């Protein structure tokens, strides 16, 4: 009985360590190139705004345009996947 308890504790600790790594570095596990490109562009846009290279209105406009483009890509990919099923 004690061996089972020790084994369960070890499994729980290893699971928690894996989950913590995922939460701290999700990009390490996400392999979608479309999402990675979108995330990089969004981060660059946010950095430009924070460095005061663009105004808030320009930031919002460009962010919305970027979000809409990504949403369209996702919808297109989803429709292709659904049509092949």
Structure description:
It is a single chain. With 85 residues, the protein is mainly α. Helix content is 82%, strand content 0%. Helix 2 runs antiparallel to helix 3 (56-84).
Number of strands: 0
Report the total helices.
3
How far from one another are the termini?
48 Å
Strand content: under 5%
Give a short account of the largest sheet.
none
What structural category arises from helix and sheet content? mainly alpha
Percent range of helical residues: over 70%
- Taking Cα atoms only, what radius of gyration do you get, to the nearest Å? 21 Å
Shape verdict = flat
What's the rounded overall pLDDT mean? 81
**What's the number of domains?**
2
The run of helices and strands is HHH
| Uncertain residue ranges | none
Strand and helix map with partners:
Blueprint: H1 2-24, H2 33-50, H3 56-84
Features:
85 residues; mainly alpha; 2 domains; 3 helices
Task: Briefly characterize the structure.
The protein has 3 helices and no strands. It has 85 residues and is mainly alpha-helical. The protein has 2 domains: 1-28; 31-85.
């Amino acid at each position: 009985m004690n061996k089972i308890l020790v084994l369960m504790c070890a499994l729980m600790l290893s699971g928690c360590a894996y989950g913590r790594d995922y939460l701290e570095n999700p990009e390490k596990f996400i392999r979608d190139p479309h999402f990675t490109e979108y995330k990089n562009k969004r981060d660059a846009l946010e950095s430009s705004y924070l460095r005061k290279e663009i105004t808030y209105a320009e930031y919002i406009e460009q962010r919305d345009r970027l979000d809409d483009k990504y949403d369209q890509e996702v919808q297109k990919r989803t429709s292709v996947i659904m049509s092949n099923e």
